[in-house]
């Protein structure tokens, strides 16, 4: 729809019809995610029809969260919060509170009506944001297409006093802190864009009085070194492609932190204008993930105090979990480790009896927490630790069933890679098969520590299985033929979560039984008898 170039007086009506049909197809079948709380149709201004907003955040959130304000696109003549709800809730699933609003559209409401409404939203946030888990000291702004123009223009207003003098409304620049922006498939040198005369929609927005408003629409002249750090995106088949890089270069010249990303490729025409709104596309997931990661990088050391914690699964408050977490499956093994090895121990979690503790080991702060049985369980706990508690490294310490003939009960295996029969990787929509692997530095250090402690370890491939009681009794033989050393049930999901989060993970296992031999450990031995493995992990 963005490739339409419209010049006639009837064009807004035609554009609305075409865009509406396309967007209906894009969002068909989408629903509110189960893990999202939403507040709908909050009036933020004087117009009870146009001035409405929604707020979304993860369920169970307590306290203020980093907040994204989304300014929708639509050529200044089309769009509303309903058309952006699924994209915005998708952003909220990444741990942000998200504000999604409707503003007045041309030609019924001409310039500066839309910009006035953007200002009213930010004024509402300054007045009422804390009632909805909005952290007004930790705001981010995203906009696409015309919404990116509006977003960049408003951010210039917030950061340049001379620009504010050109407008009649009061900007609450001193009551809010916008830490960063995501400018997607937009127009930024608006004055030049108007003078080119190829965009009929913006003429409707300006009521065909372009000369009258050129000074106010000259955003670029008012972008200063105080403009927020920005993540600027486009795609090879975005018809506004040429506008992105000059904005990036301008910010670079002003020494504003920024990133510039072009998605898709020449052979991917479907990755076109505002592709990131189609949350079913893998490129949209990648773009939105990278944009949110950029935002998180701007929070820095304050991330912990603004993440949605405690979570429904973890009662820890910000700062209660160390950067390194040891994760046995059994929560009682976590308690055993805390009681046996750690000093100054504090219990940070008892939710669902998945016990978690933080203490010190030889002067180093470390946490230990149960991860449960199976990939869905460790997937939840490790995801929250990486994304919400800012954990850097998770070391799984658990039991495994031996495959290799030269392994015996109580031998230690380090999982260099984790084969799996799980569909866990399907969520990433990869165009092939992902190979989950350990962090090399952690693995190398574990081998060195074992050598220093006089302990023998085997390093190699393991299997993370979704089933314990499998129907195919010969499956183990085929895995064994491929050189797989042992089988367990969690490492692959942990390795994938770590890879996706850009964090570190390692799996250290003790052989508790052997699928080709008769010896095995008792339940009590499994819980308390893995001292050698624990001592290696604690020393990392």
Q: Could you explain how this protein is built, in words?
A:
With 540 residues, this protein is an alpha/beta fold. 34% of the residues lie in helices and 22% in strands. The chain has 18 helices and 17 strands. It has helices at 11-27, 81-92, 113-128, 146-159, 161-164, 190-196, 200-205, 210-213, 244-253, 282-299, 303-306, 331-341, 375-388, 440-452, 475-481, 491-501, 523-528, 531-538, and strands at 36-43, 52-58, 65-71, 97-101, 134-144, 178-184, 230-235, 258-263, 324-327, 343-349, 356-361, 364-369, 393-402, 412-420, 457-464, 486-488, 504-514. Strands 1-2-4-3-5-6-7-8 form an 8-stranded mixed beta sheet, with helices on both faces. It has a 5-stranded mixed beta barrel with strand order 13-16-15-14-17, surrounded by 4 helices. Helix 9 links the parallel strand 7 (230-235) and strand 8 (258-263). Helix 3 crosses helix 4 (146-159) and helix 13 (375-388) runs parallel beside helix 16 (491-501). Mean pLDDT is 93; it is low at 1-10.
Task: Give the secondary structure arrangement, pairings included.
Blueprint: H1 11-27, E1 36-43, E2 52-58, E3 65-71, H2 81-92, E4 97-101, H3 113-128, E5 134-144, H4 146-159, H5 161-164, E6 178-184, H6 190-196, H7 200-205, H8 210-213, E7 230-235, H9 244-253, E8 258-263, H10 282-299, H11 303-306, E9 324-327, H12 331-341, E10 343-349, E11 356-361, E12 364-369, H13 375-388, E13 393-402, E14 412-420, H14 440-452, E15 457-464, H15 475-481, E16 486-488, H16 491-501, E17 504-514, H17 523-528, H18 531-538
Helix pairs in contact: 3-4, 13-16
């Amino acid at each position: 729809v963005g490739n339409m170039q419209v010049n006639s007086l009837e064009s807004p009506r035609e554009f609305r019809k075409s865009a509406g049909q396309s967007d209906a197809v894009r969002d068909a079948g989408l629903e509110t995610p189960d893990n999202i709380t939403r507040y709908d149709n909050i009036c933020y201004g004087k117009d009870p029809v146009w001035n409405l907003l929604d707020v979304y955040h993860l369920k169970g959130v307590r306290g203020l969260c980093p907040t994204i304000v989304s300014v929708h696109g639509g050529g200044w003549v089309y769009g509303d919060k309903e058309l952006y709800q699924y994209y915005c809730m998708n952003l909220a699933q990444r741990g942000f509170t998200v504000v999604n609003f409707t503003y007045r559209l041309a030609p019924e409401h001409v310039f500066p009506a839309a910009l006035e409404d953007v200002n009213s939203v930010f004024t509402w946030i300054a007045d009422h944001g804390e009632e909805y888990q909005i952290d007004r000291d930790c705001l981010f702004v995203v906009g696409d297409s015309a919404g990116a123009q509006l977003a960049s223009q408003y951010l210039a207003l917030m950061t340049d006093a001379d620009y504010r003098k050109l407008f009649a409304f009061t900007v609450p620049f001193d009551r809010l802190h916008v830490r960063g922006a995501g400018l997607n498939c937009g127009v930024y040198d608006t004055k030049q864009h108007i003078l080119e005369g190829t965009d009929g929609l913006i003429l409707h927005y300006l009521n065909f009085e372009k000369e009258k408003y050129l000074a106010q629409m000259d955003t670029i002249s008012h972008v200063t070194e105080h403009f927020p750090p920005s993540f600027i995106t486009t795609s090879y088949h975005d018809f506004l492609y040429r506008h992105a890089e000059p904005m990036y270069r301008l910010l670079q010249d002003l020494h504003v932190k920024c990133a510039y990303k072009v998605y898709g490729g020449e052979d991917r025409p479907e990755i076109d204008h505002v592709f990131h709104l189609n949350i079913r596309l893998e490129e949209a997931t990648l773009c939105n993930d990278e944009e949110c990661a950029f935002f998180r990088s701007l929070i820095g050391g304050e991330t912990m105090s603004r993440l949605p914690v405690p979570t429904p699964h973890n009662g820890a408050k910000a700062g209660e979990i160390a950067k390194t977490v040891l994760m046995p499956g059994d929560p009682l093994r976590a308690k055993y480790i805390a009681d046996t090895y750690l000093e100054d121990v504090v219990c940070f979690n008892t939710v669902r009896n998945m016990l978690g503790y933080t203490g010190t080991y030889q002067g180093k702060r470390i946490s230990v927490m149960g991860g449960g049985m199976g990939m869905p369980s460790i997937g939840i706990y490790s995801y929250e630790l990486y994304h919400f508690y800012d954990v850097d490294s998770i070391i799984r310490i658990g039991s495994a069933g031996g495959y290799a003939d030269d392994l015996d009960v109580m031998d230690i295996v380090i999982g260099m890679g984790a084969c799996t029969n799980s569909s866990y990787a399907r969520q990433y929509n990869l165009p092939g098969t992902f190979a989950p692997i350990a962090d090399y530095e952690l693995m190398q250090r574990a081998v060195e520590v074992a050598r220093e402690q006089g302990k023998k370890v085997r390093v190699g491939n393991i299997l993370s299985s979704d089933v314990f009681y499998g129907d195919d009794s010969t499956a183990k033989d085929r895995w064994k033929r491929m050189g797989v050393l042992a089988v367990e049930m969690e490492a692959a999901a942990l390795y994938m979560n770590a890879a996706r989060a850009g964090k570190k993970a390692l799996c250290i296992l003790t052989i508790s039984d052997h699928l080709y031999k008769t010896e095995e450990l008792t339940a009590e031995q499994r819980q308390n008898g893995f001292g050698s493995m624990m001592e290696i992990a604690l020393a990392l």
